[in-house]
Predict the structure.
Amino acid sequence: MAARYCLLTNGRSNSHNSVKSYFDEVAKPATFAQQFCTSSHDECIRRSFITLIIAIDGPAGSGKSSTARTVASRLNALYIDTGAMYRAVALYCLDNNVSAETVVSEITLGLEQSADGVNVFLNGKNVSARIRSQEVSDMSSQVSQIASVRDLMVNQQRALAAKATSEGRTVVMEGRDIGTVVFPSADYKFFLVADPRVRAERRVAQLKEKGEDAEVSTLLSEIIERDKRDEGREHSPLRKASDAIEIDTSGLLFEDQVDKILGVISGNEG
Ligand code: DC
């Protein structure tokens, strides 16, 4: 998919061949990050129509969800959490004690951006909290291996992005196969990784915040097991697209990983 760049200035439309040219010609001397952080630039951003597809993939605990959410918010883009969609299918199977293969056509999903992520609607019901349980995590890893489920999800993800870009919105989509399968021609692709132990420690900290206790060693084995399943599955295995930029977040501060991505998009970092 080719990127579309258009800036409306005082009612006039100016086209730019690349994001870099937009920033060089229009946004100078402010940096990209400042542009999207500084409230005095809000009007400029509101009037800009730069629609990009930004793919952020990686394994669980690599920091991709929080990073993708923040990048989307800084770009005033639509954030699409594709893992939440697989989780909703998994919840449906658990609630109804059915296999995803047989019921996938009965499932209607809705995603709505919220202040802290996405609200997910399963056949009209808000299931945003319920899809985050451990039971659903385990089941989602299983349903995501089924080809008919993946086909439906991929079609819905493309439709959501097409609607947003047709309305002039950039899309930040995160998952496992966005850069390889859903949008192989995404404008920007990032693949976040982190040491499994660091990922297990992050998960323990997250659970602690919710008042739940967990052992690093237990979570570490679960993470390794899930990675194996995600990387080894037949359909759309988790892997880095050859043209994706890999970011190892093990030793990075959160703000640094966000800035790294924004830096690449602005053309300030290669
Ligand atoms: O990112 P997450 O942990 O919420 O994802 C839940 C499950 O869905 C996980 O097992 C991987 C799978 N998934 C997938 O196969 N493809 C995606 N694009 C997103 C998630």
